[in-house]
Design brief:
By secondary structure, this protein is α+β, with helices and mostly antiparallel strands. It has 2 domains: about 130 residues, Sandwich (Immunoglobulin-like); about 160 residues, C8orf32 fold, CATH 3.10.620.30. About 25% of the residues lie in helices and about 30% in strands. It has 7 helices and 18 strands. The protein has a 5-stranded antiparallel β-sheet with strand order 3-6-1-18-11.
């Protein structure tokens, strides 16, 4: 007969193991695996056009997402390039004397996106990454995010009495969430114009994050902009109507910290979460503003790069249809089983 004390020890051990396993699981970032399709359709190409050039953002892996099984369908040769400033990868298509007035480019790929959480700020120290390692671009103005007297004055007012960069960034985040309204009515929104955002106090994610990034840079905190597509929280499949963007700021001795101010404004119950986190319900396609493509476009730098961009004989071409769809892994599996 087993000794009662041994059973107690075994039970305690099993309970401890289960508790440790549960804690370890809760510490792991959430993941989401899905299939994504990006479609661009050029329509009504003028008769007699000599050259058509098309650039699409091309997905890449990083610390927070893994991209695999990329498939490109296009009736013309394609090549992958990289922009010279931010290193964003791009799918480039060039067509001389197109024989048809339209064609389609389809890029599909698998994504595993991980939740990105960084808020253990007590670990910051002199041995951590230094702001000197951050490109100066992340302290500079953008075309629509000027660092003028008005922005410097507002940033100083918001951060008055704050001593650390973390306190200043938090004060800026709180200001943006409290003073901006997520509202896409009328015109003017969606350009990421900091002065418009200051006046209108509304807009979409580009306007929220233009304001956050500009105010951070104005007080000497490096900050950067990234853009891609959101997925609904509910797993499944469907079409995605448009882009989403987000931001990060840099703490010397700690590193980059994720922020999503527009989601915090839409979801007040998650305001604390989105200071120091990006959820897994997204895929990133590019970083930065005022982007110069490779090969260089004839037109001005792109305000941001998430939708397809095209030129016909050196002039920007607007007749581009687009469609974005996703399938979570379970939906992909179910579709495959239904066909078997």
């Amino acid at each position: 007969m087993a000794h009662p004390r041994r059973w107690v020890l075994v039970s305690l051990g099993a309970a401890l193991f289960a508790a440790l396993a549960l804690a370890a699981a809760s510490d792991r970032p959430a993941e989401r695996s899905f299939h994504f399709t990006y479609t661009a359709a050029l329509n009504d190409i003028p008769e007699g056009a000599k050259k058509v050039a098309v650039w699409l953002p091309y997905p890449g892996s990083d610390a927070h997402q893994e991209i695999s099984h990329i498939s490109v369908r296009c009736p013309y040769p394609t090549r992958v390039t990289k922009d010279p400033e931010y290193g964003n990868t791009t799918l480039y298509v060039e067509v001389d004397h197109p024989a048809k007035p339209s064609f389609e480019i389809d890029v599909s790929f698998d994504v595993t996106r991980r939740e990105y959480v960084r808020r253990d700020f007590d670990k910051a120290g002199k041995s951590g990454p230094s702001a000197k390692e951050v490109p100066s671009r992340y302290l500079a103005a953008d075309r629509l995010v000027p660092l003028n007297e008005r922005i410097h004055g507002l940033a100083s007012e918001i951060t008055a009495g704050k001593t650390s960069d973390l306190e200043k960034a938090r004060a800026i985040y709180d200001y943006v969430v409290a003073n901006m309204r997520y509202d896409k009515s009328g015109t003017g929104w969606g350009n990421g114009d900091i002065l418009w955002a200051c006046d209108a106090k509304r807009g979409n994610c580009t306007d929220f994050h233009a304001l956050f990034i500009g105010l951070c840079r104005a007080v000497g905190i490096p900050a950067r902009f990234s853009i891609g597509f959101p997925l609904p929280e509910k797993r499944g499949e469907g079409e995605i109507p448009g882009y989403h963007c987000w931001a990060e700021f840099f703490l010397s001795g700690y590193g980059w910290v994720p922020v999503d101010a527009s989601e915090a404004a839409k979801r007040p119950d998650k305001k604390e979460y989105f200071f120091g986190a990006h959820d897994e319900n997204r895929v990133q396609l590019s970083t930065g503003r005022d982007i110069v493509l490779d090969p260089r476009e004839a037109g001005p730098p792109l305000n941001y790069f998430v939708y397809p961009y095209a030129e016909v004989d050196g002039a920007p071409f607007k007749e581009i249809g687009r469609k974005f769809t996703f399938q979570d892994r379970a939906a992909v599996k179910a579709a495959a089983e239904s066909r078997s």
